[in-house]
């Protein structure tokens, strides 16, 4: 039963079907499926589409539709995940966004979701986020981590701008800055003195936990 529902969730992503994704997410919770496993099935669908995108078998409009389906399902699953993760403890706040000038969101959404499933209190600022807004929201939420994604070579320098901005404001040491995205490498992260680099969503969660010394 659970396996069928998980497969159905994945298929809604591959079919770019927002309504079906919402229905499948509700079905998963009603059937007692672990919401983290449900998100994993959705992620499998997005990863498969990502491979197809690289092979030019699908294109950006389809990826955006799949992202919308993912968000629909997540709107049902995420509250349950947060409830489970925050019972009896205060979740660590994280601010995440795609940097200024960049409107790509699928990869960033994946990272935000996996951080949520890992128990972080994730505040997604969306796309085209200026360095000043990253700082404003991080201070407001008392965030420990700022995660900045870039998916375009022309916007990658904004990750450096963010770190330079934090240094100029005298608050660089107050935050762990993680960078990632399709055009980002460990070499780049080292060059701009980021605290960590996430090659993918799972790696980002692991480096966040390591830097915060949490299990």
UniProtKB/TrEMBL annotation:
<keyword id="KW-0479">Metal-binding</keyword>
<comment type="similarity">
    <text>Belongs to the methylamine corrinoid protein family.</text>
</comment>
<dbReference type="InterPro" id="IPR006158">
    <property type="entry name" value="Cobalamin-bd"/>
</dbReference>
<keyword id="KW-0170">Cobalt</keyword>
<dbReference type="GO" id="GO:0005829">
    <property type="term" value="C:cytosol"/>
</dbReference>
<dbReference type="InterPro" id="IPR036724">
    <property type="entry name" value="Cobalamin-bd_sf"/>
</dbReference>
<dbReference type="Pfam" id="PF02607">
    <property type="entry name" value="B12-binding_2"/>
</dbReference>
<protein>
    <submittedName>
        <fullName>Trimethylamine corrinoid protein</fullName>
    </submittedName>
</protein>
<dbReference type="InterPro" id="IPR003759">
    <property type="entry name" value="Cbl-bd_cap"/>
</dbReference>
<dbReference type="Pfam" id="PF02310">
    <property type="entry name" value="B12-binding"/>
</dbReference>
<dbReference type="InterPro" id="IPR036594">
    <property type="entry name" value="Meth_synthase_dom"/>
</dbReference>
<dbReference type="GO" id="GO:0046653">
    <property type="term" value="P:tetrahydrofolate metabolic process"/>
</dbReference>
<dbReference type="GO" id="GO:0050667">
    <property type="term" value="P:homocysteine metabolic process"/>
</dbReference>
<dbReference type="InterPro" id="IPR050554">
    <property type="entry name" value="Met_Synthase/Corrinoid"/>
</dbReference>
<feature type="domain" description="B12-binding N-terminal">
    <location>
        <begin position="1"/>
        <end position="89"/>
    </location>
</feature>
<dbReference type="GO" id="GO:0008705">
    <property type="term" value="F:methionine synthase activity"/>
</dbReference>
<dbReference type="GO" id="GO:0046872">
    <property type="term" value="F:metal ion binding"/>
</dbReference>
<feature type="domain" description="B12-binding">
    <location>
        <begin position="91"/>
        <end position="215"/>
    </location>
</feature>
<dbReference type="GO" id="GO:0031419">
    <property type="term" value="F:cobalamin binding"/>
</dbReference>
